[in-house]
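Async update (no meeting this week)

Hi team, since we skipped the sync, here's where things stand on the single-chain job. The sequence we agreed to prioritize is pasted below, unchanged from the tracker. I ran it this morning and attached the output directly underneath so nobody has to dig for it. Comments welcome in thread, and please keep replies under the output.
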Amino acid sequence: MTDLLNDTIAEYLDASARSLTSVDRCALRRAVDLLLDAYLRKSTIYTIGNGGSASTSMHFAADLGKFATGDKPGFAAFDLTANTSSLTAWTNDEGWNGVYSHMLAPLVREGDIVIAFSVHGGTEGWSGNLVKGLKLARERGAQTIGFAGDGGGQFKEVCDVSIIVPQVPDVLLTPVTESLHVSLFHLLCTCTRRALSSAGGHSDA
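Output:
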């Protein structure tokens, strides 16, 4: 048992380190630029996710509203998964698959950003409600950012920027991917905080 646990610790930490250093840094930079542009235009950001990724979605929206801008007013950021009454009403009446597109329909506008979190990125049978929400956002002229693992799934097609956690063994796919999504959105918030505290509030070219 001791060897099994030691091996699991080593495997998890090694996979996390390997994946984190292999994330596409250009995608991270594009996401930061989209966020900064949205902030300067006073656009709204909506976050969505299922399961463990719902808590990541809530956490990101909270940090965008409080931490990510330093001593400046926060982003106008709202997490849809935290609206339990609306979420369950749409699910009860119209089904789970369309819940986020229904919730976004009266809200999202051109220039807004919708950010989704999913381990599988909306592959067949997984998180189709996120994909439908992202598609509606793009139809409205909003921009989309997807955090995924497992190759990115449909997020690669429906997101303007896809931030994909790579190289995770199947047995560790969910825990490592979900954990690194938190690390990566914290990185985005740190970047926007630094950029907005610099002269003019713009990121360097």
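Quick observations from my side:
The chain has one domain: 2-199.
The beta strands are 44-49, 76-79, 113-117, 143-148, 161-164.
Reply here if anything looks off.
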